[in-house]
């Protein structure tokens, strides 16, 4: 047994963690069901076949969806990677987790999905690609091994790292002891910009649609045209860049399929909860915002896929509104492990099993620019902070205007008043929670300086001004 676990650690090549005493050799709680969490960075739900997309971007994900529960209305709480994964891995809003501009990290006082499962006896491991979720920022809490693929010199390209994640998962399944359940998190950075899919996916979707659409100017930022750092010489059509985004989805879809094949070959599929989702979406020109995410709180950045395969649960579509905040309680409920305190989400297990659940829940989202949003199926309200310390509220009819392009607050003052009050109550609750959380934070230091490789990884993804990184490129 010890030899097998030692060999597994070599395969994952994870950094050692400073953790509580080693877990017991058998689960102290739960039903011994394994957990596989697959997250695909920057993945829009509406660019997958199972969500109605016309291009064949996702045959392997679509095959998973046929035997799973597909949530049609799933959203991120925070449309940037760091904040999204703090919410996803802790089940807590920023006002409870302490995430924010001064501490853009997963602070150690938060129990995480991995730490809770490890305490329950689970083997915990992660293989990730995105410097934003570096171990030094707290995201490795609870993982016995945590492999940061961008630190490995031999993995020179994004696709090298993508393939390495899938290969590591295959070995993990093969060598994991059946006597101990596992929690494995895999995070792929595709299809994050720049959109540079490998062959044959670089030409797979260069159809008539890719050659059409508006011509775009090259611009210095992310608004009004093609961001200069992503511009491809001779390509000024929106359709070309969308085709390349789709090509990246197809490339990672193939790799995710390898993971599912390996899990089935290991014999563990029928005792594994599989969750596939994303940290956030991507704006592909909506609201004049191109090839980025998180500056606004509209659906292109917020809406994500959520596909859950739970052994013994009938497959189907689910219309219950879901948030990334719901993942921790849902997963822990499914494996029968007790929740940590102060969770912001709710378990979706009952609705996974087709039991009647109230489905008019209002969802909320926040972003790095302090915008706030609340919505249901019909309506969304967005609060934008003003220089005078107040808020500007905008109201959108999501049924008649799914693109959320027209503020209808003027002709609907009564409706605006009701929704404004919903958001004000959310903000008031957040203020009360922050008062308590700041006391818990005490003198928590700011993020540590990042490694050169991590900074280079983030620059390649278009990030500038990252805490702990100089914006000067590596020589």
Could you provide a short overview of the structure?
This protein is an alpha/beta fold.
Structural class: alpha/beta
From the 3D structure, determine the CATH topology of the largest domain: Alkaline Phosphatase, subunit A
Shape: globular
Helical percentage:
25-40%
Order of neighbouring strands in the sheet with most strands: 5-4-6-1-9-13-2-14
At the fourth level of CATH, the homologous superfamily of the largest domain is Alkaline Phosphatase, subunit A
- Write the CATH architecture name of the largest domain: 3-Layer(aba) Sandwich
Mean pLDDT over the residues: 91
What is the count of β-strands? 19
Write down the Rg: 22 Å
Strand-residue proportion: 15-25%
CATH class of the largest domain: Alpha Beta
What is the number of helical segments per DSSP (H or I, 4+ residues)?
12
**Sheet bearing the most strands, described?**
8 strands, mixed
Termini Cα gap: 46 Å
Query: Structurally, how many domains make up the residues?
Result: 2
**Stretches where pLDDT falls below 50 for ≥5 residues?**
1-10, 15-27
Summary tags:
single chain, 475 residues, alpha/beta, Alkaline Phosphatase, subunit A, Arylsulfatase, C-terminal domain, 8-stranded mixed beta sheet, 4-stranded antiparallel beta sheet, 12 helices, 19 strands, 30% helix
């Amino acid at each position: 047994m010890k030899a097998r676990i030692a060999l597994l650690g070599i395969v994952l090549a994870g950094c050692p963690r400073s953790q509580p005493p080693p877990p017991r050799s058998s689960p102290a709680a739960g039903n011994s069901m394994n957990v596989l969490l697959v997250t695909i960075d920057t993945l829009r739900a509406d660019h997958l076949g199972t969500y109605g997309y016309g291009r064949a971007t996702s045959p392997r994900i679509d095959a998973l969806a046929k035997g799973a529960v597909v949530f049609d209305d799933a959203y991120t709480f925070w449309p940037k990677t760091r904040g999204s994964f703090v919410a996803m891995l802790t089940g807590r809003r920023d006002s409870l987790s302490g995430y924010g501009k001064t501490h853009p990290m997963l602070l150690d006082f938060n129990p995480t999905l991995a730490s809770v499962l490890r305490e329950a006896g689970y083997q915990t491991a992660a293989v990730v690609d995105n410097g934003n979720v570096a171990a030094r920022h707290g995201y490795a809490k609870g993982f016995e091994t945590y492999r940061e693929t961008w630190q490995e010199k031999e993995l020179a390209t994004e696709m090298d790292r993508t393939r390495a994640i899938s290969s590591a998962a295959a070995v993990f399944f093969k060598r994991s002891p059946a006597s101990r359940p596992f929690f494995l998190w895999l995070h792929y950075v595709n299809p994050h910009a720049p959109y540079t899919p490998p062959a044959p996916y670089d030409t797979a979707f260069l159809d008539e649609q890719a050659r059409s659409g508006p011509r775009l100017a090259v611009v210095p930022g992310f608004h009004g045209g093609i961001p200069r750092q992503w511009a491809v010489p001779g390509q000024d059509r929106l359709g070309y860049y969308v085709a390349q985004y789709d090509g990246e989805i197809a490339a990672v879809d193939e790799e995710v399929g390898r993971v599912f094949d390996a899990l089935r070959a290991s014999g563990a599929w029928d005792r594994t909860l599989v969750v596939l989702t994303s940290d956030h979406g991507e704006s592909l020109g909506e609201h004049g915002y191109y090839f980025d995410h998180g500056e606004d709180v509209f659906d292109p950045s917020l809406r994500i896929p959520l596909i859950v395969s739970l052994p013994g649960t009938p497959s189907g579509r689910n219309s219950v509104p879901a948030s990334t905040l719901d993942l921790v309680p849902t997963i822990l409920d499914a494996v029968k492990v007790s929740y940590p305190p102060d969770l912001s989400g709710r378990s979706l297990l009952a609705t996974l099993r087709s039991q009647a659940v109230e489905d008019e829940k209002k969802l909320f989202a926040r972003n790095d620019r302090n915008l706030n949003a609340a919505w249901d199926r019909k309506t969304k309200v967005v609060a934008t902070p003003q220089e005078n310390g107040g808020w500007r509220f905008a109201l959108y009819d999501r049924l008649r205007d799914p693109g959320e392009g027209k503020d209808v607050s003027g002709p609907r003052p009564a409706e605006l008043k009701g929704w404004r009050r919903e958001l004000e109550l959310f903000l008031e609750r957040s203020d009360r929670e922050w008062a308590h959380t700041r006391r818990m934070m005490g003198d928590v230091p700011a993020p540590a300086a990042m490694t050169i490789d991590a900074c280079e990884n983030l620059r390649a993804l278009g990030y500038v001004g990252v805490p702990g990184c100089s914006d000067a490129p590596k020589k």
